Amino acid sequence: MLARKQRERVYETILFCSALAAAAVIILIAVFIFREGTPVFVKYGLGSVLFGVKWYPTGKVYGLWPMVTGSLCVTAGALVLGAPLAVLTAVFLAELAPQRAAAAVIRPAIDLLAGIPSVVYGLFGMTTVVPLIRTLSQNIPGCAGNPVLSTGYGILAGSIILAVMILPTIINVSADAIRCVPREYKEGSLALGATHWQTIYRVLLPAARPGILAGVVLGMGRAVGETMAIIMVAGNAPVVASSIFSSVRTLTGNIAIEMAYSSGEHTQALFAAGMALFVFIMMINTVALVFIKKEAG
Asked: What is the DSSP code (8-state) at residue 58?
């Protein structure tokens, strides 16, 4: 039998090895993606690949700009539609909701949203959201005569679906941030004569702002990385969008659609898209960590 001190050392070693393995997996994935994608950037130039507006693999034209802007457009749309709703829901859960009702109905419903497979969101988008947008766009003068803008597939449909998908992330992180505000802040505000709503608006939300922003940034990461649902509703045209009704293709969608039949340099170009996506995700996570550290400090 090992002595207690030796057992503690064994447990620490196992945990350290587990953490080291997780970090090693991330590093190996990054090395693999960068090794496969770098030759395209070296051959055609960083600027021509990253900012090129044409994606035509059979002609060896690998401009990623349509996919980059497509990812940015649907992500921005999802944040505009979803973030305010998520923050208001978090305030309600943390400050106003009856605890019994919140525990029995609202929180399980939010958790269920996080557990629904993305393909189900995609099916809902195809059968419900896209027809509604199609009807809307056909009543707008500038879109009715344009078959590209009146299909219903595009930025708006993708943004609506992603807005629903990022709700659980932002709600849970924001609600936790509001609950973590020191109780003295709320009691002091109420003692000075402020109403409950004034306390929420003037005291709790400013104090919880770093955590709320971290939740929004994490939701952004969720939206950028989504693939299946966005493929089903975005239209997947590799062109720079001209309207919220325009069909777009995201970086994740581009990789998922073409990887199955690509080969040679085409595959390397898809890995180059993966490099751009990897860097983008790392930047988002870094921003989220900065906000979280600021909240902790």
From this structure: G
The CA distance from 185 to 72, in Å, is 38
Q: How many Å apart are CA 123 and CA 1, to the nearest integer?
A: 57
H helices of the chain, in order, are 4-44, 46-50, 65-91, 99-101, 107-115, 118-124, 130-137, 141-144, 155-179, 183-191, 196-199, 205-225, 228-233, 251-258, 265-296
CA distance 58 to 169: 40
Q: Which residue shows structure tokens 């995700």?
A: 281
Do residues 62 and 55 make contact, with C-beta atoms less than 8 angstroms apart?
yes
Tell me the pLDDT of the chain averaged across its residues.
88
Task: Give the length of the chain.
Answer: 297
Residues with Cβ within 8 Å of 268's Cβ and at least 6 positions away in sequence, in order, are 36, 37, 39, 40
- Average pLDDT of 186-209? 89
Q: 55 forms bridges with which residues in the sheet?
A: 62
- CA atoms of 219 and 224, how far apart (whole Å): 9
158-195 confidence digits (pLDDT tens): 999 999 999 999 999 999 999 888 889 888 988 988 88
DSSP 8-state secondary structure symbol assigned to residue 59? G
Question: Averaged over 15-21, what is the pLDDT?
Answer: 93
With beta carbons less than 8 A apart as the criterion, state whether 74 and 162 touch: yes
Residue 164 Cα distances to 8, 170, 189, 233, angstroms: 45, 11, 34, 14
114-128 residue pLDDT tens:
889 999 999 999 999
From first CA to last CA, the distance across the chain in angstroms is 43
pTM recorded for the entire structure: 0.87
| Average pLDDT of span 253-262 | 91
Q: Which residues contact 132 (CB under 8 A, 6 or more apart)?
A: 152
- Residue 169 makes CB contacts below 8 A (sequence gap 6+) with 114, 215, 218, 219, 222
Mean pLDDT in residue range 216-243: 89
